TrEMBL record, chain A:
Superkingdom per UniProt: Bacteria
Cited PANTHER family: PTS SYSTEM GLUCOSE-SPECIFIC EIIA COMPONENT
GO BP term, example: phosphoenolpyruvate-dependent sugar phosphotransferase system
GO molecular function, one term: kinase activity
Annotated PTS EIIA type-1 domain residues: 21-125
Organism: Lentzea albida
Keywords: Kinase, Phosphotransferase system, Sugar transport, Transferase, Transport
SUPFAM superfamilies for the chain: Duplicated hybrid motif
Pfam families assigned to the protein according to its UniProt record, in alphabetical order: PTS_EIIA_1
Subcellular location: Cytoplasm
PROSITE patterns the UniProt entry points to: PTS_EIIA_TYPE_1 (PS51093), PTS_EIIA_TYPE_1_HIS (PS00371)
Protein name: PTS system, N-acetylglucosamine-specific IIA component
TrEMBL record, chain B:
Domain PTS EIIB type-1: start-end pairs: 3-78
Pfam families linked: PTS_EIIB (PF00367)
Keyword set includes DNA-binding: no
Protein name: PTS system, N-acetylglucosamine-specific IIB component
Bilayer topology term: Multi-pass membrane protein
Domain of life: Bacteria
Active-site feature positions: 25 (phosphocysteine intermediate)
Predominant cellular place of this UniProt entry's protein: membrane
Keyword Transmembrane helix attributed: yes
Length: 151, 78
């Protein structure tokens, strides 16, 4: 079976290699797609149906019942923002649906504070060939498909 | 079992005395150490680390999404 992974944000889907952090650009924790977000205050949505297994203001992981876990990281090194500018709408352990609002943030504010707001969306511990139909160099709306993860 | 892994990671980082601060960030442990040169990168990779990035006495160990759990297990050992 395969899992459709949607974009958490509106923006432009690009290759992970464009992310200025080796953990993501070298796919150390898994393959995926990055989204260069539209620079305006917006909601970040869940990329799939599942449970919020990890939740930080600047990053979260949603895992489904089959063990497919997707990491969304909102900007690079944004842990240093200590949660400032991120408004959470769910709690850890909550069941969520694809497209459900998780966080509200402002990529323009993150960028103005000196951080790259690009959002890596990672299929954790997947092999690169498990991902298909990767959105690449196209504009996406929140919840548009980014890739299919066959499992 | 989990504690044992935390213990071994702690040893590979030079032991409790070498730790200034450990902060988990979803996929990695950001470790501020007294002496970054003693880190046993090979041992960390043997313990499942996907990568180790060093910048002087700040060492980032990429452990995947277990980072939060491992960091709190290590905190318990300090």
């Amino acid at each position: 079976m395969s899992v459709r992974v949607g974009s958490p944000v509106a923006g432009r889907a690009v290759a992970l290699a464009a992310v200025p952090d080796p953990v993501f650009s070298q796919a150390m924790v898994g393959p995926g797609v990055a989204v260069e977000p539209v620079r305006s205050k917006s909601d970040v949505v869940s990329p799939l149906d599942g449970t919020v297994v990890t939740l930080h203001p600047h990053a979260f992981v949603v895992a489904n019942g089959e063990g497919a876990a997707v990491l969304v990281h909102l900007g690079i090194d944004t842990v240093k923002r200590k949660g400032e500018g991120f408004e959470l709408h769910v709690v850890k352990g909550e069941q969520v649906q694809a497209g459900q609002k998780i966080v509200t943030w402002d990529p323009a504010e993150v960028e103005a504070a000196g951080f790259a707001p690009i959002c890596p969306v990672i299929a954790l511990d997947a092999s690169a060939d498990a991902l298909g139909d990767l959105a690449q160099d196209v504009d996406v709306a929140a919840n548009d498909a980014l890739f299919d993860w066959s499992r | 079992m989990a504690d044992e892994k935390a213990q071994k990671i702690l040893e590979a980082l030079g032991g409790a005395d070498n730790i200034v601060e450990i902060e988990p960030c979803i996929t990695r442990l950001r470790c501020e150490l007294n002496d970054g040169s003693v880190v046993d990168e090979k041992a960390l990779k043997g313990l499942g680390a996907h990568g180790v990035m060093r910048s002087g006495n700040v060492v980032q160990v990429v452990v995947g999404p277990e980072a939060d759990t491992i960091a709190s297990d290590i905190e318990d050992l300090l």
